[in-house]
Design a protein that fits this description.
Elements (H helix, E strand, L loop, with lengths): L2 H23 L22 H17 L2 H13 L12
């Protein structure tokens, strides 16, 4: 698995876990007709959920790679739509 593929895979898996936790412990998140969390739904950007997502992913990247890599990925995300090839989340 390439490093870039690993980054996106980790991101997708981490966000699924995070959104499930938020839906259970913090507040109900928007759902798709099949009952799964709609990760593109309203209320997931520019708020506390968005802040949790950024900090959680930074922690995942720090554990998996390094704090330097996590910082770099966070900065890149601010300059580029880093989610364009992600299958799970657009934000």
């Amino acid at each position: 698995m390439s490093s870039l593929t690993k980054i996106y895979t980790l991101k997708d898996e981490a966000l699924v876990q995070l959104y499930i936790w938020i839906d259970k412990e913090v507040r109900t998140l928007p759902k798709k007709p099949d009952g799964t969390i709609d990760q593109y739904g309203a209320g997931l950007i520019d708020n506390d959920i968005d802040a949790l997502r950024h900090s959680f992913l930074s922690g995942v990247y720090t554990i998996e790679f390094s704090s330097e890599t996590a910082e770099l990925l966070g900065r890149l995300n601010e300059f580029r739509d880093f989610d364009s090839s992600s299958s799970a989340v657009g934000g």
